[in-house]
Fold this protein.
Amino acid sequence: METSTVTVQAPATVANLVCGYDVLGLCLSKPYDVVEVSLINEKTVIIHPIEGFDLPTDPASNTAGAPLIEMLKLIEADLGFEVKIVKNIKPGSGIGSSAASAAGAVVAANALLGNPFSEHQLVQFAMHGEKIASGVMHADNVAPCIFGGVTLVRSTDPLDVISIPAPDLWVTVVHPQIEIRTADARRILKKQIPLKSAIEQWANTAGLVAGFFKKDNDLIARSLKDVIVEPIRKLLIPRYDEVKSGSIKLGALGGGISGSGPSMFMLSKDEVTATAVEAHMKSVFEAISLPHYTHISKINTAGVTVREN
Ligand code: HSE
């Protein structure tokens, strides 16, 4: 029954960018998932099992399936989607694994249909995948994955995503092999914060956005501070302070927890610094025999890209 297929590369993303919990995010070039979506002529979504991972194939409980179910609600024609995913972004890594499945699926499905939906609508669909993964419709991974570059989610209801000029910076990511569930990492956060902390946090968030617009690396570095989330979540990541302070000593502008962790990221102004930071990150985790992966990439301004077949 298959009439046509679109394959996309759906990249990893770094959410929060230290001070912008649930609102800021950036898109990496690698790693990325490969998402293949085929059109079928029955109003349903079929999810194939993903090799190497025990993820649900019931579309309503799948991070790629739920967004496509939402999309189908707006389509009159009797059609549906069949989805195959090659997952290179490990679930629970903190670099937007669930977002990549969701964003990749909706971008591919939209392309199959001749792109009737806007990027904002695609983010809206994809947020239903995040609801499954974390219990919350946050968009700070799916927005940069779909828009590319750096994004600000000013509001999720109604959705308002703003593209921010991506700085010409390098990102080093380390993923220590422990798993932190986003839902758990959200549950441990305080529900109320002192006004003093809120003032500091929104000053830094505004400073970071201003730094991106002004291409001012010193302002970016000064603003990469989190007085609300990091002090709690960093306790879940072994050797967190050592990774961070050593990276900054080597010249990184700053960084912190990627999304809800356990991955950490650091921004650097050149590849040499990004590579030195990577070596430091590796040495810290090698010293405690904690297996880990690292990735170095520039900020990816393209987001999810359709592969030419
Ligand atoms: N903003 C979300 C959180 C991102 O920190 O919980 C999850 O990847």
